[in-house]
Amino acid sequence: QVQLVESGGGLVQAGGSLRLSCAVSGRTFSSYTMGWFRQAPGKERAFVAAITWNGGSTYYTNSVKGRFTISRDNIKNTVYLQMNSLKSEDTAIYYCAKSYSGTYYSGQYDSWGQGTQVTVSS
Q1: Residue 13 and residue 60: Cα distance in Å, rounded?
Q2: DSSP character at residue 88
Q3: How many whole angstroms separate alpha carbon 100 and alpha carbon 67?
């Protein structure tokens, strides 16, 4: 069974940066597309970014393009989300997830971390 553990969240001022990490257990990490989602208070969980198994392709929701970068290290079994130029609207709980089929929809992911809180103060 795959386990995912996020870290790196916190409180940051608008315009600042954070890097989230997601450590994944399991020998087949390098086989899967990995994604980041976020859930703001009172809103549904939403797609943020995804990266294919070898890092060859990345995908982003429009609101984070040019500010966020997803990457992965298949030796360390870790996926990262570098977040720059943070805005108050980026405040949410951020979850990493393992895909079994597809990229953009939460239903395409079958394993989830517990989430890490990101709060951006204006």
Answers
A1: 23
A2: G
A3: 27
Block residue for tokens 């703001």: 40
From residue 29, how far is each of 11, 47, 53, 57, 73 by CA, in Å? 29, 20, 8, 16, 10
**CA–CA dist 77, 30 (Å, integer):** 7
Task: Give φ, ψ of 41 to 5 degrees.
Answer: -55, 130
The whole-angstrom separation of Cα 118 and Cα 68 is: 14
Euclidean distance between CA atoms 33 and 100, whole angstroms: 8
Q: In what order do the strands lie in the sheet with 78-83?
A: 4-7, 18-24, 78-83, 68-73
Would the CA dihedral through 26, 34, 53, 10 be positive or negative? negative
Q: What is the pLDDT along the chain (122 residues), one digit of tens a residue?
A: 899 999 999 999 999 999 999 999 987 888 899 999 999 999 999 999 999 999 999 999 999 999 999 999 999 999 999 999 999 999 999 999 999 998 999 999 999 999 999 999 99
Q: Is 33 helix (H, G, I), strand (E, B) or coil?
A: coil
